[in-house]
Write a structure and sequence with these properties.
eight-stranded parallel beta sheet; 17 helices; alpha/beta
Length: 418
C-alpha cells in the first residue's frame, strides 16, 4: 500500500490548485438554465407598438395559409411530421409569435437630430412599459443603441440613459430586459459598458448586476486582435457577469473582411470562422450565442417567397445543427420558417434522445452506452424543445419516463432534490 501521498502532499496540491478552482467556479459557472429565445426580431426603434407582436404573428400565419398551409410548406421543405408541425407552429404564431424583440436605435434607425432620437427613445420606453403592463410584451425585449465608437458614442449613451430612466419612471424594469451593445472592437468598450451599467444601478437604486447586456460581434478586431489574442473571449470575463450573450453580425463583419455584397451570408466561411471562435469563447461561461440574419426577405411574388422560405429554413437548421440555438429575424414572414425549422429540429431527434435518456436514467441496457456528459446533452436538447413549444410535457414523460423537473435537473447537472 502506497504511503507517498500523505495529507501534507494532498494539502500542497489543494493549495496549488486553489486559483484554478476559483477560476472555474467564477468564470465558467456553466448553463444557468434560463430559457434562451430561439430568435431575436429587430424593428426600428420608433416603430414598436403594443400590438406589433400579435400583428406579426397574424400576418405570418396568413402568409403561410394557416395550419394547413404550414403543413404543406413543411412537406415541401422535407420536414418530418408536416401535419403536426403545421398545428404546433400555427399555435405558436397565435400565442407567442416573437420570443425576443429588439427596438433598434442603431443601423435600423439611422442618424437623426438629437431631439428626434430623444423623443423616440422615451416613446419606445413608454410603449415597452405599456406592452409589459398589458401582458403583450415578448418574454425578452429591449433596445440596441448606437456603438461606442467616437462618432456615435455620446448619442448611444444618451439613448441608453433615456430609455432605462423612462422605463424605471414607469415601473420596475421588465424581467426579460435585453440591451445590445453593437460593433464592439475592444475589451475596453465592454468595460465602459460595465461602468455605465454600474452608474445606472447606483442612480436608480437597482441591485448590483441588474443591468446586463449583449455584445454584438461585427468586427474582425474582436475575433483576433493586433497581438494575436481573442478579445471575444476576454470581454466575456471583463464583463463581470453582465455579458448575457454574443450575437454575430452577418453583414458588417463580412463587409469588414472584404466579402463582396452578393456573397455575404450566414454560411460564408468567414462567418463560420468567427462563430467557431465565439462558440469556444462562450463554452462553460453561461453566456448565450446567437447567429445573425439573412437579408433575403420572404416577400413579393409567390416564387420569391417560396425561395426565401427555403433558404431561411435551411439556414436556421444549419445553425441549430452546429449548436447555435438562436438567430435573427428581420421580417414577419421569417417567423414561418423560423418555427417550422426549429420545431422540426427538436422533434426529429426527440424519439431517439428520449429513448437514450430513458435508458440512461433507468439503467436499461441498450446498444448505446451514454456517459453523464452525453446524458446532459440529451436532456438539454429536449429541454430546449419544451421551452420553445416544439415538445410537450406528456411527450417527455412518455418517451423518457421522467418528469420535466427531472429533465431540467439532468440538463443542468443538478440534484432533483435541489
Amino acid at each position: 500500500m502506497s504511503n507517498v501521498f500523505d495529507e501534507s502532499t494532498l494539502a500542497a496540491v489543494e493549495a496549488k490548485l486553489a486559483a484554478t478552482d476559483q477560476l472555474l467556479a467564477s468564470a465558467y459557472p456553466g448553463d444557468s438554465g434560463a430559457r434562451q429565445p430561439v430568435h431575436t426580431v429587430y424593428v426600428p426603434g420608433d416603430k414598436f407598438t403594443v400590438g406589433l407582436p400579435e400583428a406579426w404573428g397574424s400576418n405570418a400565419l396568413a402568409a403561410a395559409g394557416n395550419a394547413a398551409g404550414l403543413a404543406k410548406l413543411a412537406a415541401k421543405l422535407n420536414l418530418a411530421e408536416p401535419g403536426r408541425l403545421g398545428e404546433l407552429v400555427a399555435a405558436k404564431l397565435a400565442s407567442e409569435p416573437i420570443e425576443d424583440l429588439r427596438l433598434d436605435f442603431e443601423d435600423g434607425y439611422g442618424n437623426r437630430p438629437d431631439a428626434e432620437e430623444d423623443a423616440a427613445a422615451l416613446a419606445a420606453a413608454d410603449s415597452v412599459s405599456a406592452a409589459v403592463a398589458a401582458g403583450k410584451a415578448p418574454a425578452y425585449i429591449g433596445i440596441r443603441f448606437k456603438c461606442f465608437e467616437a462618432p456615435t458614442r455620446a448619442r448611444g449613451i444618451r439613448t441608453l440613459d433615456l430609455f432605462i430612466s423612462r422605463l424605471l419612471a414607469n415601473g420596475p424594469l421588465p424581467e426579460g430586459l435585453r440591451l445590445t451593445l453593437p460593433k464592439v472592437t475592444t475589451v475596453d468598450q465592454v468595460e465602459a459598458m460595465v461602468f455605465l451599467a454600474e452608474k445606472l444601478e447606483e442612480a436608480h437604486g437597482l441591485e448590483d448586476g441588474r443591468i446586463r447586456f449583449e455584445v454584438q460581434v461585427e468586427t474582425p478586431q474582436v475575433i483576433i486582435a493586433a497581438d494575436g489574442s481573442h478579445p471575444v473571449a476576454a470581454l466575456i470575463h471583463a464583463g463581470q457577469g453582465r455579458v448575457s450573450s454574443l450575437h454575430y453580425g452577418t453583414y458588417d463583419y463580412s463587409a469588414s473582411l472584404g466579402v463582396a455584397a452578393g456573397y455575404q451570408s450566414m454560411e460564408h466561411p468567414v462567418a463560420d470562422f468567427a462563430k467557431d471562435v465565439m462558440q469556444v469563447a462562450v463554452a462553460g461561461t453561461g453566456v448565450e450565442l446567437s447567429d445573425g440574419s439573412t437579408n433575403i426577405i420572404p416577400a413579393g411574388d409567390p416564387e420569391n417567397i417560396a425561395a426565401a422560405w427555403a433558404l431561411h429554413a435551411r439556414l436556421v437548421t444549419r445553425h441549430l445543427t452546429r449548436g447555435i440555438y438562436q438567430g435573427w429575424d428581420m421580417h414577419e414572414n421569417h417567423l414561418v420558417t423560423r418555427y417550422l425549422a426549429t420545431f422540426a429540429f427538436f422533434r426529429e431527434g426527440l424519439e431517439a434522445a428520449g429513448t437514450r435518456l430513458r435508458n440512461y436514467v433507468h439503467k436499461i441496457e441498450s446498444a448505446i452506452m451514454d456517459e453523464p456528459a452525453t446524458a446532459r446533452a440529451l436532456a438539454r436538447y429536449i429541454h430546449r424543445g419544451v421551452a420553445c413549444g416544439a415538445v410537450g410535457a406528456q411527450e417527455v414523460t412518455d418517451l423518457a419516463q421522467i418528469t420535466l423537473a427531472e429533465l431540467e435537473a439532468i440538463a443542468l447537472n443538478r440534484s432533483h432534490a435541489n
